């Protein structure tokens, strides 16, 4: 008897081929023998060697098929954004490329699948063109959702896992509408749709998508900075990692670059199982070595997130341990834009840090000035001197930065 087909689509480039391989490998471990999984990889530049590697995962009830979609993207203007490559846009073309399927699963390549996706495929979309998981409720998402069109962050989704109704997707002209929004965004001096097609999809499908079980798209990227998650969801967010069907390593801190981050061990578990283990290690060890020590800046001092809104322009006063930690934290997290760093002894600090004399505060444009001093007594003296320089008191921030260890 012919087995029911589960169509699953990934998109990758040559740099991401090995990570797509790991995602597919993890998916196969949970595949139900009663189904036939036809896995498509949309690409335009994967080498023949990597294509062969990906297709080697095919077996009795698994077929891997790599499709070059150059003809579909040739006349479309696609631009990278943040850490996102142009391959992120390929999901918009899925119903056009694979019209033979009524319903299709799309998955990002930066994930580990821990449950059989046939269960995801069986969900009823209730008449909507797309099924997706609501995005993680956090302050950065709240700010970004508002900026791209006054959206309520509680009503937006993460596009890393999608179940697509092909006919309705085409009838609603979702691809065309998204591409039009993106083309409009490209004309701006400063782009708003920084999450590319995910932003466009959220605008086009606002309040018009089916909410999938949240376990199908768990993002561990905030487990090491839970203060950015809405307080009422933090406990639930931390506990949900134990029941995740899909562990989605969204954001720019990937487990192959930051193996010490929470849930990275899940990725490395699969790496150790695959026959391509040595290739993975060879491919990514340079990134792992480069990442070594970078996250130590988060260990001792915590940036005052509660007092400084996301994407604020900040100045930092003092270039000691706290100041250096905050500078590094902002560089890694992109939470706020550091426009000025000052210190009374600026001449004695390495030029590479770019620390300026305190007087530069008078000429800088910033939203908040962070007194990066561990001592409250010293911070008070600095604050008084800043007030004498006519720095507005509501722009001056000091807090108890030192993290308290659990007893």
The main sheet comes to: 7 strands, mixed
How much helix, percentage-wise, in residues? Answer: 25-40%
Low-pLDDT stretches: 288-292
CATH architect. name of the largest domain: Alpha-Beta Complex
Task: Assign the CATH superfamily of the largest domain.
Answer: Spore Coat Polysaccharide Biosynthesis Protein SpsA, Chain A
**Main β-sheet, spatial strand arrangement:** 3-2-1-4-7-6-8
Beta fraction? 15-25%
Element order: H for helix, E for strand? EHEHEHHEEHEHEHHHEHEHHEHEEHE
CATH topology of the largest domain: Spore Coat Polysaccharide Biosynthesis Protein SpsA, Chain A
The domain tally reads 2
**CATH secondary-structure class of the largest domain:** Alpha Beta
Morphology call: elongated
Alpha-carbon Rg, integer: 24 Å
Summarize the structure.
The chain is an alpha/beta fold and 407 residues long. It is built from 14 helices and 13 strands.
Question: What does it look like?
Answer:
With 407 residues, this protein is of the alpha/beta class. It has two domains: 5-286, Spore Coat Polysaccharide Biosynthesis Protein SpsA, Chain A (Alpha-Beta Complex); 313-397, 3-Layer(aba) Sandwich (Rossmann fold), CATH 3.40.50.720. The protein has 14 helices and 13 strands. The strands form three sheets. The protein has a seven-stranded mixed sheet with strand order 3-2-1-4-7-6-8, with helices on both faces. Strands 11-10-12-13 form a four-stranded parallel sheet, sandwiched between helices. A two-stranded antiparallel ribbon has the order 5-9. Helix 13 links the parallel strand 10 (313-317) and strand 11 (337-342). Helix 1 packs parallel to helix 2 (48-55) and helix 8 (174-186) crosses helix 9 (197-204). The longest helix has 15 residues, at 277-291.
């Amino acid at each position: 008897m012919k087995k029911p087909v589960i169509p699953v689509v990934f998109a990758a480039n040559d740099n991401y081929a090995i990570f797509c391989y790991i995602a597919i490998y993890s998916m196969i471990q949970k595949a139900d023998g009663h189904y036939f999984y036809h896995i498509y990889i949309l690409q335009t530049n994967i080498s023949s060697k990597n294509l062969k590697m990906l297709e080697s995962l095919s077996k009795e009830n698994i077929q891997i098929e790599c499709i070059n979609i150059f003809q579909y993207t040739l006349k479309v203007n696609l631009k990278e954004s943040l850490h996102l490559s142009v391959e992120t846009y390929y999901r918009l073309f899925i119903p056009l490329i694979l019209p033979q399927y009524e319903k299709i699963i799309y998955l990002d390549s930066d994930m580990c699948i821990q449950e059989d996706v046939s269960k995801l495929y069986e969900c009823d979309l209730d008449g909507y063109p797309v099924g997706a998981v609501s995005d993680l409720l956090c302050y950065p998402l709240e700010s970004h959702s508002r900026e791209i069109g006054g959206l309520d962050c509680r009503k937006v989704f993460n596009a890393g896992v999608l179940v697509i109704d092909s006919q309705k997707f085409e009838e609603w002209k979702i691809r065309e509408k998204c591409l039009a929004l993106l083309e409009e965004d490209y004309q701006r001096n400063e782009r708003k749709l920084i999450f590319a097609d995910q932003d466009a999809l959220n605008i086009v499908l606002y309040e018009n998508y089916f909410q999938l079980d949240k376990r199908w798209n768990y993002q561990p990227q905030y487990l090491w900075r839970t203060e950015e998650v809405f307080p009422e969801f933090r406990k639930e967010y931390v506990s949900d990692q134990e029941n995740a069907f899909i562990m989605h390593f969204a954001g720019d801190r990937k487990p192959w670059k930051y193996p010490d981050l929470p849930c990275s061990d899940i990725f490395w578990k699969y790496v150790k199982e695959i026959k391509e283990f040595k290739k993975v290690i060879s491919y990514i060890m340079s990134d792992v070595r480069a990442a070594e020590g970078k996250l130590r800046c988060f260990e001792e001092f915590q940036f005052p997130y509660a007092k400084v809104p996301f994407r604020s322009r900040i100045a930092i006063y003092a270039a000691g341990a706290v100041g250096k930690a905050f500078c590094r934290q902002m560089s890694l997290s992109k939470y706020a834009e550091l426009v000025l760093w000052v210190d009374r002894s600026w001449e004695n600090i390495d030029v590479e840090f770019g620390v300026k004399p305190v007087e530069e505060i008078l000429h800088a444009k910033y939203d908040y000035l962070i007194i990066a001093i561990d001592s409250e007594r010293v911070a008070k003296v600095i604050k008084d001197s800043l007030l004498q320089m006519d720095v507005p008191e509501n722009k001056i921030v000091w807090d108890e930065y030192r993290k308290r260890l659990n007893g």
